[in-house]
Amino acid sequence: MEDLYALDFDGVICDSCGESSLSAVKAAKVRWPGLFDDVDSTLEDWIVDQMYIVRPVVETGYENLLLVRLLLETRMPSVRKSSVAEGLTVEGILENWFKLKPVIMEEWGEDREALVDLFGKVRDEWIDTDLATWIGANRFYPGVSDALKFASSRIYIVTTKQSRFADALLRELAGVTIPPDRIYGLGTGPKVEVLKQLQKKSEHQGVTLHFVEDRLATLKNVIKEPELDGWNLYLGDWGYNTKKEREEAASIPRIHLLELNDFSKKLK
C-alpha cells in the first residue's frame, strides 16, 4: 500500500532558528528603529540565543519579530511599552505566549499582515543580496536531505512558512525539487484544512496518510477534527518542542513520538 507523508518544514525538515532569529532582528530594526539605538552586539547576541529557547511557541514566522522586541523590553526598561515585559522570563514566554501575544500586539499597535509582509521582504532582500549567507543560516536535520531525495512515499510540505522560502531551501540545501502544487505554504489555510484537501483528492484514495509535525498544539487541532481520524500523527522529538510537550504527547494515544533516524527510515 502506498504512503503519503504531509511534512511540516521548520522543526521537522529544517532547523531555521538561526536564520529566522537573525531575520527577525533585521526586521525589528526596520519596524522599530528607535528601539535599537542603544542595543550593542552583545545584547543582540543575547536576544538571538534566547530565541532558540522560546522558538517552540512560534506558529507563524512574523511572531519572531514580536519575540525579539519582547525580549529586548525584558532587558531594557527604557524602551518598555508593554505591560507584560517587567519580570518576564523565557519560561514565562514558553508557558503563556498565547495570552501574551494579543496583549503586546494591541499595546504596540501592530498589524499581523503588515508584520508578515515585512518579515517576507527582509528575507527577500537578504536572499537577493547574499544568498549564500542566508542559506548558511539554515540547516537540514541530519539524514533528512537523503531521505527526501530517495523517498518512495508521496511527499507534501504543509508549513506556515512562505512557500518560496521552503522551495529555495529544499533546492539549495537538499538538492530536492518538490513540485509547487505539493508545497502548501503560508496563505493556503490552516493545516487541518490542508489535510482535509489532501485526503479528498481522488488520487489519494486508499493511500495510508501520515502527518509529521513538531508543534503539539497543531496535532491536537487535528485530533479535534473527526474528519481527520484517518491520519497517522507524529510529533518529531528533534523539533521545536519542550520536554513537557513531549511528555504530554506520549500520553495521547493518537500521537506517535518520532525520533529523527526513524523519520528518515520511514520516508525511504
UniProtKB/TrEMBL annotation:
Q: Which GO terms describe its biological process?
A: SNARE complex assembly
The record's GO molecular-function terms, alphabetically, read: SNARE binding
Task: Name the InterPro entries on file.
Answer: HAD-like_sf (IPR036412), HAD_sf (IPR023214)
User: Taxonomically, which superkingdom?
Assistant: Eukaryota
In Swiss-Prot or TrEMBL terms, this protein is called: Uncharacterized protein
Source species of the chain: Acer yangbiense
Cellular component aspect of the GO annotation: endosome; lytic vacuole
